[in-house]
Each structure stands twice: as C-alpha cells, then as structure tokens.
Write a structure and sequence with these properties.
- The structure is a single chain.
- With about 100 residues, the chain is mostly helical.
- It has one domain.
- Helix content is about 75%, strand content about 0%.
- α1 crosses α2.
- The chain is elongated.
- The protein starts with 7 loop residues before the first helix and ends with a helix.
Length: about 100
Amino acid sequence: MGARFVDDQFLQSWAGPASRRRTILLALTVAQSYIACHFLLKILPDHGESGIEIAVTVLFAILFGWISLGFWTAVAGFCWVDGFINIKCLRAKYPE
C-alpha cells in the first residue's frame, strides 16, 4: 500500500465544497450550452426539423459545451487566484 499524503479529515472537509463547485460548474455549462443551442435552432432554415440540422445541433452542443466548460473553469480559476473565493479549509490547514 502506498503512502498517504493527505489525511481523511482533510478529504472529508473538501467533499462538500468540491461537490458544490462541480454542481455549479455543470449548471453554468449546461445553461450556457442550452441557450446557445436555442439560438442556433432559431437561425437554422427548418429550425431543427431535418436530420442534418439535428446532427449539426448535437455536434454544436457537444463542442460548445466543451468550450463553455473551459470558459467557466478559467473564470473560477481567476476568482480563486484573485481572492474572490475564500478557501477556509486550506487557510486553516496551511496558515500564512
């Protein structure tokens, strides 16, 4: 068995906040992708009723979701580095 670098209490203290952050990230990504797909369907000639438009919309949703995930991850990273997000358990574990 390998060495453990973090203790169980530290992992448990991060479980709740990490789950909330992932849920928020997923919600932002899905919402932004849904809105983008809605606008895409509005500008297509048959408004998504033909097979090729459905295929284009599905591909667009996948690729736009990927870009949206990268965008929101970058925004969260900026907020973390800039100090907007207060990480109490890290500061308690590693005081400055």
